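=== RUN LOG ===
request id: a7f3
mode: sequence -> structure
chains: 1
length: 72
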Amino acid sequence: VDFSPLYRSTVGFDRLFTMLDSLAQPDGAQTYPPYNIERTGEDAYRISMAVAGFSEDEISIEAHRNVLTVKG
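=== RESULT ===
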C-alpha cells in the first residue's frame, strides 16, 4: 500500500505513515543501500543514499509514475 499521496494532506501524521510502512517489512529486514528521506518543503523531498564505490557515471536515476528507480 502506497501512503505517499496522503502525506501532503495529513500534516503531523508523518510518523504514523512511517510506522505503517515499516509493518510491511519483515522483522529485522535491512534495506540496501542505506538511505534517508528528508522533507524539505510542502511537496519537496530529498533522498540521500550511501552508494560507496560507485562514481556518478555508474548510477542511473529514473522517476516514472511515482516510482523512483536507482540502478548502479
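=== NOTES ===
The helical segments are 4-7, 14-23.
The longest strand covers residues 35-41.
=== END ===
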